[in-house]
Amino acid sequence: MPRPSHCAACGAAIRWTITEAGKRLAVDAAPHPEGNTAVARDGRGTWLSRRPTDELPLTGWERLHRPHVATCEGGEPEPRTRCLGLLDLSEARRRREAGTP
User: Fold this and answer.
1) Phi, psi (5° rounding) for residue 60?
2) CA 68, CA 18: separation in Å to the nearest integer?
């Protein structure tokens, strides 16, 4: 079984999953009973995630996990945006407007 990755902002163990929409979502590596994301592996070993609903509840092979962005202790706001894979370009824009490299 592959080892979990680690969050760049806080160092916590995470698993990268693919959502039903084809997006990447980091979830905490350990299942949690209060989680809101169903996580399972497909036949190729890819971690998949989805939001359980009344029409399609949690199945026997899925486990509930929490999205890591909800539990990241990396601070606000810069480390959290890094956790999401986002970049803060405001500093680069300020330098460009000021005319400094």
Assistant:
1) -65, -25
2) 14
Condensed to tens digits (0 to 9), the pLDDT of residues 55-96 reads: 988 888 999 999 998 888 876 555 555 555 566 677 778 878
Which residue carries 């698993």 as its tokens? 15
Residue whose structure tokens are 């969050």: 7
Taking Cα atoms as reference points, which of 33, 83, 38 lies closest to residue 59?
38
Q: How far apart (Å, rounded) are the C-alpha atoms in residues 78 and 90?
A: 11
Distances (CA, A) of 90 to 5, 83, 98: 28, 17, 12
Read off φ and ψ for residue 36, nearest 5 degrees. -125, 15
- Count how many Cα atoms sit within 13 Å of the Cα of residue 93 in the half-sphere of its side chain: 4
SS3 52: coil
Predicted TM-score (pTM) of the model is 0.69
